[in-house]
Design brief:
Structural class: alpha/beta
Strand content: 15-25%
Order of helices and strands: HEEEHHHEEEHEHHEHEHHE
Number of helices: 10
Radius of gyration: 17 Å
Number of strands: 10
Shape: globular
Largest sheet: 7 strands, mixed
Distance between the termini: 24 Å
CATH class of the largest domain: Alpha Beta
CATH architecture of the largest domain: 3-Layer(aba) Sandwich
Strand order of the largest sheet: 6-5-4-7-8-9-10
CATH topology of the largest domain: Rossmann fold
Helix content: 25-40%
């Protein structure tokens, strides 16, 4: 598998006539605004906050900024992913489809409880309140910085664990750190869910064998930006109805 293929396809499908209106960097999130809307990506806390892009992004072609999703500087990659999501997740993108509105703003982990009963389930990324799933399934949690007290496994364990799983739920931050292509290879026999605001809401991702995209659409762009710049966590912005979390299922 060409590990860059998914990135190249996401970048190439952005139309040329969109440009960057602004980029913001908050303690937890990066945002890029274009005519399509405001896209988000998680800020990698251990990456440098200033790059060669600083001061040069306004007015760039959105497609050119999105190409930085391939960068090995993970701050640049976060900016690139936010640019991708400005296009694919923008509230003005009329191609967004298959959204299950009845599940908007509901946790994907609550929605799938019936499906994963007794199954082998791996979650990449220690999402809030997921330990309770241990009561109903054979749960493995993989983390780059594992909390051993909560029985996390370090992420290299993916090579051993994923081929045997029934379900994989992975944070879309794996697009930033470039581990998603390998995770998809390892979990080809599992039903795979891509989760979090960094998730591009596009059939391009569905075509790579992903069962469900659980991502975000920013509805009130300036209000969301202001809250993020004040250090707000995602849940606070959702509570104010500035962002809608949505689920797109494989047709």
């Amino acid at each position: 598998m060409d590990k860059w293929k998914v990135y190249d396809e996401l970048i190439e499908n952005i139309e040329d006539n969109y440009s960057v209106e602004y980029c913001f960097v908050s303690p937890h999130w990066v945002g890029v605004k274009s005519q399509m809307g405001l896209g988000l990506a998680m800020r990698m806390s251990d990456s440098p906050i200033v790059t060669k892009l600083t001061g040069n992004m306004k007015g760039m072609k959105l497609k050119d900024l999105a190409a930085y999703a391939k960068s090995w500087d993970f701050h640049e990659a976060s900016i690139g992913m936010a640019a991708l999501n400005s296009y694919y997740n923008g509230k003005n993108n009329n191609s967004l489809k298959n959204i299950n509105e009845s599940t908007s703003n509901l946790s994907i982990f609550d929605l799938i409880k019936d499906k994963v009963q007794g199954k082998k389930v791996t979650i990449v990324g220690h999402f809030p309140n997921i330990e309770k799933l241990r009561e109903i399934c054979q749960l493995t949690i993989l983390e780059r910085k594992p909390d051993l007290a909560r029985f996390d496994l370090p992420d290299p364990a993916c090579e051993y664990v994923l081929p045997e799983q029934d379900y994989l739920f992975t944070t879309a931050v794996t697009l930033i750190n470039k581990t998603l292509p390998r995770l998809l290879e390892l979990s080809k026999n599992a039903k795979t869910y891509l989760v979090g605001p960094t998730t591009p809401l596009t059939d391009i991702m569905i075509n790579y064998g992903i069962e469900c995209l659980s991502g975000s659409i920013v509805l009130e762009e300036e209000k969301a930006k202001d809250l993020f710049l004040e250090g707000a966590i995602l849940q606070a912005v959702i509570k104010n109805k500035y962002i809608k979390m949505v689920n797109i299922l494989k047709p």
